[in-house]
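Homework-ish question, so no full write-ups if that breaks the rules, but can someone show me the predicted structure for this set?
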Amino acid sequence: QSVLTQPPSVSAAPGQKVTISCSGSSSNIGNNYVSWYQQVPGTAPKLLIQENNKRPSGIPDRFSGSKSGTSATLGITGLQTGDEADYYCGTWDTSLSAEVFGTGTKVTVL
Amino acid sequence: QVQLVESGGGVVQPGRSLRLSCAASGFTFSSYGMHWVRQAPGKGLEWVANILYDGSKKNYADSVKGRFTISRDNSKNTLYLQMNSLRAEDTAVYYCAKFGPSGMDVWGQGTTVTVSS
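A: Not a homework solution, just the prediction itself:
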């Protein structure tokens, strides 16, 4: 059972914007960096955002991350069909001494 | 290029053991902590365990504590996951991943473990 809560799905038309929320607590998001991962079905996850809002090399600036208190948000602008995937937030939970992931959000491009 | 390649998955009976390996290349393996993450069929990501760069500290998910052991051989650039007393609920794709500035910045392609009689 995940300690980070995400909406099960979001959708938008090509070119539009979507945001995905990730809600946690002071023991995880509130005091640790948040990462975001993209997983196309049948493939391994890929890091999209690290340290709350930093994009690794090769990740387009259409992807952005932010954090406020015990919640984090992933934004995707200029939505493309290739963005259809499952997206997960992740962070360290200090109380559990464990890495925790969000419940996952499926992005659909209409 | 930076690469992680898992191996060792397969079909195993409940109660038996299996050892997974993760071969690293393209980076200084001995300088980075490593994770194991799994994904049951149709489910989300579940963190399993991690280990510091020198093996000095290990952490485990409650679901595998006491049954699974993470280890590494820096001379062989290889990460391991020894899985004992396997249960049906351990059926999953198992990924190894490298510590990043936060989270996991490089992932392997995964190896499938099926626990079934």
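Now go work out the reasoning yourself. Hint: The interface with chain A takes residues 35, 37, 44-47, 50, 59-62, 95, 100-110 of chain B (CB under 8 Å).
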